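Data availability excerpt. The first of two example chains:
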Amino acid sequence: MLHSLYPKIKPNKIEYLQVGEHTLYVEESGNPEGIPVVYLHGGPGGSSSSDHRRYFNPEKYRIIVFDQRGSGKSTPHAGIINNSTDDLIDDMEEIREYFAISKWLVAGGSWGTTLALAYGIKHSIRVTGFILRGIFLGTDSEVNWLYGSDGAGAIYPDYYQDFIAPVQHQHFSDPVKAFHQLLTSENEIARITAAKAWTLWETRISALLVDKHELDSQEETHGAIAMACIENHYFSNHCFFEPDYLLKNVSKIAHLPAFIIHGRYDMVCQLKQAHLLAEHWQNSQLQIIPKAGHSGFEDAIIDAICQASDKMADFIENQ
């Protein structure tokens, strides 16, 4: 029987932390004396969900979830000024110190895995381990796969036509650049149209069976603008990494335990990236989920993450 999400719980605390001109929305839930874990949402530009805290046993874990710069309930909404990978890493340290946490388990999905790895490489002494779902290594080839007609667009050519409609012929050379022009435009109608198309494309290909409610919620203008503008900002800047930065530096965290979880039919982030990461990480365990795509809320993915969090709790408690 598959492990389901833990029961719904309310946060113990909600904080708004000031970091420069940004304000971060941060939640603490679960056991205040439990094992600290931080969960990193995707995007960049997505947002935290009340279900993210449900991956972890609330009796065993002290669960920290936050909205990254410009995302969700953090402000300024969709802000891309002083919004880089290093800024997000610094924010994590601010949050860790604010809650007086010495070390924490770092978990995340999609872009959250990218940020988790980047954080660990810089602050390995602050990490007890990793749970990573849907690996994205922040490389140009992965971005080209996701937005190119020869990548995911070849698997979903019908949805791809809807995706590129706002940029028309401009997409052929560089769809990310073409969307950037619209997403930074002063034409509000063009901006919103581009944002919805950008966000809907990723949502449509994120699971084997996409929930209609999820499609409707992802088209909601407020969230779509943040997701599209911030993702495009990061991808236009190569995620603020040197080429192959994460793989070249994974040796700095290879001594730490990691569960790597990836759907075999993930069309957003290709399985080969997870396989490559596991090959470079001596203390990792790769679990390929046979009947799953990219979403963190497919049943088999939920099962794998919850099982991993249970095993990691046992490991950390017995150290």
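And the second chain:
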Amino acid sequence: MNITAKVALRMIPDSLATQPIFLCVDDTMVAKTGTRFENVSKLFDHAAHNGSNYLNGHCFVNIMLCIPVWKNDRVSYLSLPLGYRMWQKKESKLELAASMIRQVMPEFQEKKQAIILCNSWYTKQNLGSIVDEYQNLDLIGNARIDSVMYDPAPAHTGRRGRPAKHGKRLSVETDFAFSNEKIGDYYIGAHRVITNLFGCREIQAYVTATEKEHGTKRLFFSTIFPEDLQIFCACQEKEPLNQTGSDRMKYIPLFLYSFQWNIETSYYEQKTIWSLCSYMVRSCKGIEMLVNLINICYCAMKILPYQDEQFSEYRTKSVQEFRFELSQGIRSQIFLTNFVRNIETHIKSNVIIKALKQLIRQQVY
């Protein structure tokens, strides 16, 4: 994980050095048949498409690094999965995620802003408390809609007695003033709050709703405030960040949460194109090593167009296209090399050998 993180940080252009980087946290299921795989068990999967909410298989916790790069004169975020850890029920998925973040955070000491992005499963105290361990680390996450929130503590009146730790309890139904019009697909309300997930620390809370009165509502927490973010909004590739005006600046942390979706795209690409789920190794250690080896190859392929100008045209192309072109190049080199090495002596000629060597040289360079 640390090696991929080091290489990724060197890829960030100097002009984007102040842009925040993101650490997306999530987990994914891998269905397996039978019980001979070590640690295989029945797992709850809300997205299962097998007629049941349970599947037989493994669960992997993953963190993914998103770094800023230039693409078509816009700021785009390149997603690089740093590693996978199998959940073996000895420790919770929250503890696994926290230990993985602690492992890579020393690489980001010189970075001004690193932000964890996570869904409501991970926005809990076990992971939320990690932001207090590093000065440059914050968290933006979806949270349970019934999470308890309070107004910030009122100013001390000077009267005798213990000062209040927080203000009145807040409700997502009545205490969030929504925007006058929809921003994207939602009305958005913002409020500074205190919640037990982050101790006595003031954080920013956002509530989104499809309709102001009766629409479905979702709650988000951000430990970083809009005024503390150093991000080029107008240059962003993704909407609505590139459309942010002065009236929308207070919603920037919520807009940044959209980068969390990149981890789902990564799962899809690795499972369908890189055969992440096709392992036949039985031991937990062997499975983890194989899955992370596949992940390293996947990351190397995504990094290559930014490290070698020869492949720069593939920065804007899909993973499928680039993987196909790489595989074609590797196959042709192997075929031509073996053909020259094993060609029969009686038909060898300087003309044939010279032509083949020239062709191999073109393939290499």
